[in-house]
Every structure is written in structure tokens, then in C-alpha cells.
Amino acid sequence: KAGVTQTPRYLIKTRGQQVTLSCSPISGHRSVSWYQQTPGQGLQFLFEYFSETQRNKGNFPGRFSGRQFSNSRSEMNVSTLELGDSALYLCASSSWTGIYNEQFFGPGTRLTVL
Amino acid sequence: GIQVEQSPPDLILQEGANSTLRCNFSDSVNNLQWFHQNPWGQLINLFYIPSGTKQNGRLSATTVATERYSLLYISSSQTTDSGVYFCAATDPNTGNQFYFGTGTSLTVIP
User: How many angstroms separate the CA atoms of A45 and A48, rounded?
Assistant: First the structure.
């Protein structure tokens, strides 16, 4: 099985711009979660989508949004970028059987905001 | 949410040495996993271990769910083991959200 893929891998934007990141989960996985990793805050949960519905959301401003398509691919969008949004963005997929729920991470998208 | 404490924060080992990394949780958790973050940032799955003991080569892990901790053992360490190790788990009350520890940075010197 192919692993979790994320595009693009690297991105440079300027303050005020917006950005869209994409995540394709492992085939058959219906749950996709997004995380932000920064040196100061560590790994923080952004949101989780399951069957095209946002099921859980972390403590991030409304500038951070996401969606999931019928094929389980997910996108996250950050509008009005700030310098502090520079981070590694990771997505994870899982099958979510309710009992067994191992999560697998993609390679990440490294976003730099200038 | 759940608080996750990892110790030690930093570890320097001579090649061939053994080590134990610990993860403590503030409350009951499920879906506990250990990861190794490679130099490019990807989190590589080491163990899915909500309870019990598992072994994979030189690595093994034990989770004592009733006492809210998990241990990762690395034996005969190699320079390729260097990197940051994270434990993470989900809260039974908040679905699929992972709570991560702050990681243990391991450096193995030849």
C-alpha cells in the first residue's frame, strides 16, 4: 500500500497571502488529521476529518480551515498568513475502526512565511 | 486534554549502549504510539502499543495502561538511531486527536 502523501513538500509565502496544503491518506483510510509542528509549541492538533465531516478541532484561529473530499483526500487552508505560521504541517491517516486506530503520518509540508 | 510528559528530554549515548525512554500520561489514554522523527521531519511509526509489550529487532516497548506510562527500550544503539522520539496517544473522550509529548532527542556517537 502506498503511504500518506502530502503536497507540496516545501512552500515559501509572504505575510498576508493564503496557502492550501494537500494530503492523500492511505487507501481505505477515512480519517485524516492535521498537525502543526513548531520549535516553540511542539506538535499541535489542528483538526480531524472523517467521511467529509470535521469531527474534531484544535485551538487554532479561524484562519486555519480544512475540508475532506469523497475520496478521503484532505486539504487545509491558511488565510492571511502570519510569520508565526511558519511550521511543518503534518497529516495523519487512520482507518478508525473504533478499537484499533493506528495513525500513519505523511512526510509533511514545510511552510516558510516571509 | 491529556498532558504527556517524556523523559529524558535529551540523551547522548555511545554506540552500542542501551537506553530507556519514558512517557507518562495525566489520564487514561488509548491508541498509544511511539514515533521516530527522521531528519526530514516525517514521523515514522515504531509501535502501536495501547497495552502490553512488543518487540521489533533492537527496539521494544511496554505500556502499563493502569499506571499511565509507556517505555521504549533501545538496545545496542547505532548512530542511525539518532533523532527525536515521540510518544502520543488519544483521549477516549475526544476521538482521534493525538496528544504528543515534547520528545526525547537522542544522539548516538560512534
Answer: 8
